[in-house]
Amino acid sequence: MSFVICPLSIVPIRSSATDTSEIVSQMLFGELAEVLEAKGRQWIKVRCTWDNYVGWVAANQLKAITPAEHKAFSAHFAYSLELFQPIMADNQVVPIVLGSCLPNFDGMRFRLDGVSYTFSGQAVFPEHIKPSAEFIIKMARRYLHAPFLHGGRSPMGIDAAGLVQMVFKMVDITLPREAGQQVYTGNVVDFVQQALPGDVAFFENRAGRISHCGIILPDEEIIHAYGSVRIDKLDHYGIYDRGQGRYTHRLRVARRMLKGRALTQTEPRRISARIPNQVQLF
């Protein structure tokens, strides 16, 4: 069994072993993976340690580590909370993005492949995280205006499921990579009127399959990746784009990912029945 770590800012995970294949996800700096298979010297098939996602990565974009290092890095690390922040070494600077991992971080420095790096930004250790709706919303808002990118997981480009996954990663809640899998996690909120800020809403396409998701905000709004990370109105029917004057996504269900939050309220937050003068277009 062999393992690798991502030593670069952002590395694409592809659907097959070719540079022209679809980008299905990404690895960020410091994230770990198990090597499942090699195709020649150029490509390796990996299973990401954090979310078990499987795909192909160019072998020269990852760094081999020992099983002992994999165990140590998995047990002790911090998340970067900075949108963009360089890590500094004597002869190199590596820009890293929000949600990257700092292995064996001591609060100022860490070592990787014999090189000592300094990180001067804000970071948090998983064991110090106290998950809350307020923190989830704060992290989600940091991605505002990031462009939509299928398979993306960073402020340079992110998709809807990637946004939800990354935000909950930073409160140490592991979610699957795709919306169609995320919808089976957490607890169902029976009525959207009972949804709370920090809950996740899921949306279906015309075929009835889950194809989109976003994080519910206060004041009948949702933050999601659609063209870019943006905030739109949400009601029991779906996401309403005020600029276009139409619904863009049809609501299927809301789910509660935070543990210990009641699934009912004595006075549920009301979501308006429908927005006046709406046009239903999907």
Structure description:
The protein has 282 residues and is mostly beta strands. The protein folds into two domains: 2-124, Roll (SH3 type barrels), CATH 2.30.30; 133-256, endopeptidase domain like (from Nostoc punctiforme) (endopeptidase fold (from Nostoc punctiforme), Alpha-Beta Complex). Helix content is 12%, strand content 40%. It contains four helices and 23 strands. It has helices at residues 67-75, 133-142, 160-169, 179-182; strands at 2-5, 10-14, 23-28, 32-39, 43-48, 54-58, 63-65, 77-80, 84-88, 93-97, 101-103, 109-112, 115-118, 123-124, 153-154, 157-158, 187-189, 200-204, 210-217, 221-226, 228-234, 238-241, 246-256. Strands 18-19-20-21-22-23 form a six-stranded antiparallel beta barrel. A five-stranded antiparallel β-sheet has the order 6-5-4-1-7. Strands 11-8-14 form a three-stranded antiparallel β-sheet. Helix 2 (133-142) packs across helix 3. The protein is globular, with a radius of gyration of 20 Å. The termini are far apart. Residues 130-258 form the NlpC/P60 domain. This is NlpC/P60 family protein.
Core attributes:
6-stranded antiparallel barrel, disordered C terminus, 5-stranded antiparallel beta sheet, SH3_16, 282 residues, endopeptidase fold (from Nostoc punctiforme), 2 domains, globular, SH3 type barrels, hydrolase, mainly beta
- CATH class bucket of the largest domain: Alpha Beta
Tell me the series of helices and strands, N- to C-terminal. Answer: EEEEEEEHEEEEEEEHEEHHEEEEEEE
**What ranges have pLDDT less than 50 throughout 5 or more consecutive residues?**
263-282
Whole-angstrom Rg: 20 Å
| Average predicted confidence as pLDDT | 92
Q: Helix- and strand-based class?
A: mainly beta
**Total count of helical runs of at least 4 residues:** 4
- So what's the oligomer here? single chain
Describe the global form.
globular
The main sheet orders its strands as 18-19-20-21-22-23
- Main sheet attributes: strand count, strand direction, barrel closure: 6 strands, antiparallel, barrel
Report helical residue fraction: 10-25%
